[in-house]
Amino acid sequence: MRTVELIQKKRDGQRLSRAELEFLIDGYVRGEIPDYQMAAWAMAVFFQGMEPEETTDLTLIMASSGDTLDLSAIRGIKVDKHSTGGVADTTTLVVAPLVASTGVPVAKMSGRGLGHTGGTIDKLESIPGFRTALSPQEFISQVNSIGVSVVGQTGELAPADKLLYALRDVTATIESIPLIASSIMSKKIASGADAFVLDVKVGRGAFMKDEEKAVALARAMVQIGTLAGKTTVALVTDMNQPLGRAIGNALEVKEAILTLQGQGPERLTEVCLQLSTEMLLLAGAAATASEARVKLERNLRSGLALEKFKEWLAAQGGDPRVAEDVSLLPQAKFQADVVAPRSGYVQEIDPLALGVTAMHLGAGRETKDSLIDLAVGLELQVSAGDHVEKGGVLARIHASTQEHLGAALSEAGQAFRLGDTQPEAKPLIYRKITAEDV
Ligand code: URA
Ligand code: CA
Fold first, then answer.
1. Which pTM does this prediction carry?
2. Whose CA, among 146, 217, 323, 431, lies 20 to 30 Å from 28?
């Protein structure tokens, strides 16, 4: 096999076989195929696309390029949830204990935040004592004893994807549906679950800005999961406004606790319930969506989900008292309010602008190696559609320095658009994609 012939084949719109993709990917990981040839192949894929079976082959080859987690020692069907990344989106912190409280095991690997979107592992690290690095044995035995564990990536998962992603990033080949779908699914498959629920965000604050592209990505990922023998469903959910009201690590933990107490923001609570419903269905823990929903709502109301959250924190060394007393979480030194410059209805709240504001405050990473501040961020005091008076509070900023506070006040102010009439409510869930749809 010659690399140049494989590039040519893809350039001309033909499908590469599994053996041909293995030759390319394995050769690239070993350093035998140079960046310029891989870049040419990625650009050919960008223009020509890939067949579903071809995308699946690529995914499985990348999934097996490094460490893989074997979860077979955990009883039951292991369902993982993955979000493509949003703002004020603390769903994992709610969904993991909520689903586990119904008896469905949750063994999840999560990532750190990058850019304007947060990451579950950073949020968890704002809980005093919480350990996000467990050995695979500790991870598995914790799930077997209490039903839930969430850890940072252990070992080297899908190193082929890491290399390819870095190359795509500098060769304008990120925005290819088969390349994005295989990149995400390779990491998911390597982390060992039997089934996947995907939350594909769409809108201004999301990686996918328009519905058509988000649906195409959701379909591609469901197709890969299905062809790889893992039941996969995707919800395409709105990210044209922040999902919840808190942006920033400790602030989002506080919001997750409120939500587990049944007092969370409506849209966040609804997305958590719908994702959890899909997880229960895939795990075989409910026969219908309404049966799943009843169980989940009952566990929120009864406090069982919150109890499971505390048990989970304690098992990973975290202080479970935060669930009763959120003042035990890190607190920022300075606070101030963004106020409405006029009276009116909140038309729009730009999630991207607020995500970037939070990043500038230190809540998120501008680059992979930035240090972050777990206490800072912002808390919305209004939702789209609310009426505010002039001078009314739109958001509260939490900052570690006066300079950051001042900058964030003016930056965050730009994220709100006020108007005279009440806007129509935006949809929350656009589509559900299952194997039958692809
Ligand atoms: N996220 C990923 O993990 N991979 C991509 O290619 C794009 C977003
Ligand atoms: Ca291989």
1. 0.96
2. 217
- Domain 3-49 sits in CATH at 1.20.970.10
Nearest-CA residue for atom 8 of ligand 1 = 180
342 carries an active-site annotation: no
Looking only at the bridges linking them, the beta strands covering 393-399 and 334-339 are antiparallel
Q: Name every protein residue with a CB atom under 6 angstroms from any ligand 1 atom.
A: 165, 174, 179-180, 183-184, 207
Interatomic CA distance for residues 409 and 255, integer angstroms: 21
**Domain segments of the chain: what residues?**
3-49, 79-324+430-437, 331-419
- The one-digit pLDDT tens for each residue of the chain (438 residues) are 999 999 999 999 999 999 999 999 999 999 999 999 999 999 999 999 999 999 999 999 999 999 999 999 999 999 999 999 999 999 999 999 999 999 999 999 998 888 888 899 999 999 999 999 999 999 999 999 999 999 998 778 999 999 999 999 999 999 999 999 999 999 999 999 999 999 999 999 999 999 999 999 999 999 999 999 999 999 999 999 999 999 999 999 999 999 999 999 999 999 999 999 999 999 999 999 999 999 999 999 999 999 999 999 999 999 999 999 999 999 999 999 999 999 999 999 999 999 999 999 999 988 888 889 999 999 999 999 999 999 999 999 999 999 999 999 999 999 999 999 999 998 999 999 999 998
Residue nearest to atom 6 of ligand 1 (CA): 180
Task: Give the residue, out of 161, 174, 184, with the most ligand 1 atoms within 8 A of its beta carbon, to mutate for a pocket test.
Answer: 184
Report the C-alpha gap between 207 and 51 in whole angstroms: 23
- Ligand 1 atom, smallest distance to 187 CA: 3
Say if residue 5 is exposed, middle or buried (CB neighbours under 10 Å; 0-12, 13-18, 19+).
Answer: exposed
* Residue among 149, 96, 128 nearest 321 (CA): 128
**How large is the C-alpha radius of gyration of the chain?**
22
- CATH 1.20.120.1200 applies to domain 79-324+430-437: no
Closest ligand to 61 CA?
2
